[in-house]
């Protein structure tokens, strides 16, 4: 009878220990793999960095376009540059222009 009581007491301790380890394992797993765990944190940091790089590229593109638009304002318009660009885009020349074709 004494042996049976001793086994029950040790069994309760073992079950309590197993339960404690299971609870700790559960929380440790979710701390790493959960929706707000470490892996999600690092993935979110990566997305943030990529978004910042895209933002910087878009800013640079916008500044380039703004500087080109500023060159078209009447105060800063270079008529020779405008004429050259229009000829290039429209593929037109004056009657008295001399065209030299280069091989590539």
What would you say this structure looks like, in words?
The chain is mainly α and 104 residues long. The chain folds into two domains: 33 residues; 56 residues. It has three helices and no strands. The mean pLDDT is 88.
What's this, in brief?
The protein is built from three helices and no strands. It has 104 residues and is mainly alpha-helical. The protein has two domains: 33 residues; 56 residues.
DSSP, total strands: 0
For the termini, the CA-CA separation is: 103 Å
Helix content: over 70%
Q: Helix tally?
A: 3
Strand/helix succession: HHH
Oligomer: single chain
Calculate Rg over CA atoms: 37 Å
Key descriptive features of the protein:
104 residues; rod-shaped; single chain; mainly alpha; 3 helices
Indicate the topology.
Blueprint: H1 2-33, H2 38-71, H3 79-90
